[in-house]
Design brief:
The protein has one domain: Domain of unknown function (DUF427) (Metal Binding Protein, Guanine Nucleotide Exchange Factor, Chain A, Beta Complex), CATH 2.170.150.40. It is 0% helix and 55% strand. The protein is built from no helices and 10 strands. The protein has a 7-stranded antiparallel sheet with strand order 1-4-5-9-8-7-6, with no helix packed on it. It comes from Bradyrhizobium macuxiense.
Length: 119
């Protein structure tokens, strides 16, 4: 486990805007409680609370990955409009202590879904 610091900063802040995630025109998640995670020089990621996602459209996969800063990630595919977007979502169900704010949240690959801030 590595801790965020000056060499690898990670910040988590509440996003004051409404965030909507769609796949092929189907709303997968919509929330006013997104968290914006900024990590080092990577693009910012919106983490959406699970309760604001349509979990009926998601299917857990066997994929797992490990981040030395956040912990072990699990994945979901999206099933919408007769299509499956494999491993389009990741989640840290038991993140490392420094990242507990993202527990119970989902993050979406922007090349697989449309993520937008709406009025």
């Amino acid at each position: 486990m590595k801790l965020p610091g000056p060499d690898h900063p990670i910040t988590i802040t509440a996003n004051p805007k409404r965030v909507r995630v769609t796949a092929d025109g189907v709303v997968i998640a919509e929330t006013t409680h997104a968290l914006t995670l900024k990590e080092a020089s990577y693009p910012a990621v919106q983490y959406i609370p699970r309760q604001d996602a349509n979990m009926a459209l998601l299917a857990r996969t066997e994929r797992t990955t490990h981040c030395p800063y956040k912990g072990d990630a699990n994945y979901f595919s999206i099933k919408a409009n007769g299509k499956t977007l494999d491993n389009a979502i990741w989640t840290y169900e038991t993140p490392f202590p420094a990242m507990t704010e993202i527990t119970g949240h989902l993050a979406f690959y922007p090349d697989k879904v449309k993520i937008e801030e709406v009025a």
